[in-house]
Amino acid sequence: MSTAQPDTDELSRRVGGFLAAHDPSAMEPLEFLRARFDAGLAWVHYPEGLGGLGAPRHLQAAVDRRFAKAGAPTNRPERIGIGLGMAAPTILAFGTEEQKRRFLRPLWTGEEPWCQLFSEPGAGSDLAALATRAVRDGDAWTVSGQKVWTSMAHEARWAILVTRTDPDVPKHRGMTYFVCDMTAPGVEVRPLRQITGEAEFNEVFLTDVRIPDEHRLGDVGQGWRVSTTTLMNERVAIGGNAAPRESGMIGVVAALWRDRPELRTPGLHDAVLRAWVETEAARLTGARLRQQLTAGQPGPEGSGAKLAFAKLNQEVSGLELELLGEDGLRYDDWTMRRPTEVDFTRRSPGYRYLRAKGNSIEGGTSEILRNIIAERVLGLPGEIRVDKDVPWKDLPR
Amino acid sequence: MTELASDLLYSEIENDLRASVREVLDDKAPWTSVLAGIEKDEPYDAGLWRTVAAQLGCAGLPVPEDLGGAGATWRETAVVMEELGRFAAPVPFLTSSVVATAALLTAGERELLARLAAGERIAVLAVPFSTVPGAVADTVRVADGTLIGEVTSVADGMAADVLLVPAGGGLYAVDAADARRTAVTSLDMTRRLADVAFSGAPATRVAEGGDAVRRALLTGAAMLASEQLGLAERCLDDTVAYVKTRYQFGRPVGSYQGLKHRLADLWTSITQARAVARHAASCVAADDADTPIAVAVAQAHCSAVALKAAEECVQMHGGIGFTWEHAAHLYLKRAKADAIGLGTPDLHRAALAALVDLPPA
Lengths: 397, 361
Known about the structure:
- The complex is a heterodimer of chains A (about 400) and B (about 350).
- Chain A has helices spanning about 10-20, 30-40, 60-70, 80-95, 95-110, 225-230, 250-260, 265-295, 300-325, 350-355, 365-375, and strands spanning about 115, 135, 140-150, 160-165, 175-180, 185-190, 200-210, 215.
- The radius of gyration of chain A is 23 Å and the shape is globular.
- The termini of chain A are far apart.
- In chain A, the strands form two sheets. A four-stranded mixed β-sheet of chain A has the order 1-4-5-8. A four-stranded antiparallel β-sheet of chain A has the order 2-3-7-6, with no helix packed on it.
- Chain A folds into three domains: about 1-75, no CATH class; about 115-230, Butyryl-CoA Dehydrogenase, subunit A, domain 2 (Beta Barrel); about 250-360, no CATH class.
- Chain A has about 400 residues and is α+β, with helices and mostly antiparallel strands.
- With about 350 residues, chain B is an alpha+beta fold.
- Chain B folds into three domains: about 10-120, Butyryl-Coa Dehydrogenase, subunit A, domain 1; about 140-210, Butyryl-CoA Dehydrogenase, subunit A, domain 2; about 210-355, Butyryl-CoA Dehydrogenase, subunit A, domain 3 (Up-down Bundle), CATH 1.20.140.
- Chain B is built from eleven helices and ten strands.
- Chain B has helices at about 10-30, 30-35, 45-55, 75-85, 95-105, 110-115, 210-245, 255-285, 290-315, 330-340, 345-355, and strands at about 125, 140-145, 145-155, 160-165, 170-175, 180-185, 195-200, 205-210, 245-250, 250.
- In chain B, the strands form three sheets. In chain B, strands 1-4-5-8 form a four-stranded mixed β-sheet. Chain B has a four-stranded antiparallel β-sheet with strand order 2-3-7-6, with no helix packed on it.
- Chain B is globular, with a radius of gyration of 20 Å.
- Chain B starts with 11 loop residues before the first helix and ends in a 6-residue tail after the last helix.
- At the A-B interface, α7, α8, α9 and α11 of A face α7, β10, α8, α9 and α11 of B.
- Chain B: GO terms for molecular function: acyl-CoA dehydrogenase activity; flavin adenine dinucleotide binding.
- Chain B: Belongs to the acyl-CoA dehydrogenase family.
């Protein structure tokens, strides 16, 4: 390790020096991003040589702002969130030196997009019940099974994959974690159409896919621990700035209320005001959470934020349809599309209403989140686990 | 896009202040004492008030030092409100150290203000406790420098040494001894009401126009949100502690999802109430232009959270929570009175509708 952790001034000096030597307007975006990674200014809290400088994590926002101000190309983080938010921290925590050097740079620059092969038709909230089998075959593994809810699978180069390697031990102990080549023979990606008509997600069928042992992350049988690291990082990344007042869905509803007086009723007025207040409360809560992180006082409040966000989105989008009355009966388009981003405000009210239903299911159902808050924040007793000591192969399914 | 101007966190000074206030309240205002107090004739706990107001110096927090105060801000005052809310403490802090103090600060009055800041005198604004900021009814008139009329449901009306009475387009100070006061059997006996009648009471005009009263009620509503936050936290803490130790069907009742999930939702609501209440306190402290919106949001939101917390506290304690010999009803009564106090959530939403251009049907 180098001497002291770089501070704000040191980082500012380094960014200035980098920008003086690398003119963003004169370089290929990819070359610029690679150079930025090599200078340790990609994610400053990562170690030196792996895109970082071992600096405190909260100093990243200022670095990003400097690059944005200079008109530098970005790695389009909104498109590679799974790589940045889930694969990278897992590789950093459990990868070999060789794996870190091979995967992290093209992951960060966006050259190699990542997806996540975790959920299965029979393993949703109970991820550790998963059934995708990996069988050792010399210096490689043969993997077969079905994964589901995989966003970006059709564009991804690599996947983080968790498998069952030992069916004879209780479920948490018999799992192993891999990096899977999405271009390997036996990997089949099929779009999964959802209630909105489009397909953001995929099903991924794995049939005798060969994965070299050098692409294993962590020890054999350690897959649950590695997965936990991935999932802990799922919602750590939080945007840099407070959303302005009336942004998002409440803005659409408020504008509708102002523009269409003929839609107004006393009951809907009360509902709009209640939704406005709750949205503002959620916005301030997000702002406070960011202030805590910036001050280096992270708290458990983030786990409540997703719960509140899901409930609010569902309420406000449902209110919008009712406010619209007759127009709420119409839908913009049921064609199966393949969107790369979810944008609530650019589609129709019907889409917003339907898409919001996913908010309390994806990334941990609201019921599981409530368990987590109750047990980890409030210290209430855990759920009774009847499957804890039963070999995986003997579990009812 | 700029980051929010308000600091929504607690400073080290605020954390220290919280610790000293809590230490005093733990010692002098355990719920058993608060419960015993509501059956006594004394309208408030005078001993506790002396300690909080004068010894700890909390009464003068938002008052500048050259006016006899501590020279802190409404942010620190809000922290004291959180702690007093945690204990449903029977002291006239909201009424005298917040609402009356804000009125006198706005009016530029000095003499009475200094005595309130020192905790030597108690003044209350003579309006019904249910009054929403900006909606003071004109029930008292001025005749030859004296006041004539009645005001009902004045919070801490019996505790007051001085009544600040909106009348004749201004604000008047009246010695409480010159008014006829009738104690009201109140829903919340930890903050008791009085009906007040004036029949030619000598009065001193302390402010012109309605600004002092409007600012006083707005500041009171902002600080009340912090009281509601503290009260909600207390209800959650007590309930969580109870459901861990109460066994039925061979398990702690807190192991059932039927309770766990509701407590998780309550905790989430409280994290929101904290952000909302801190924002309102910061806005008032900075005299921010956003104050009326921040306060309307805080009251609409925090009233509901505190009430929910108190209602869940009663329900999740089961039978014991329905008894007089348990603290839960103290919190429930305070929470319900607070939800009505300084404007119901509905009245604050109506105020908000005008402020953010969401007109009624």
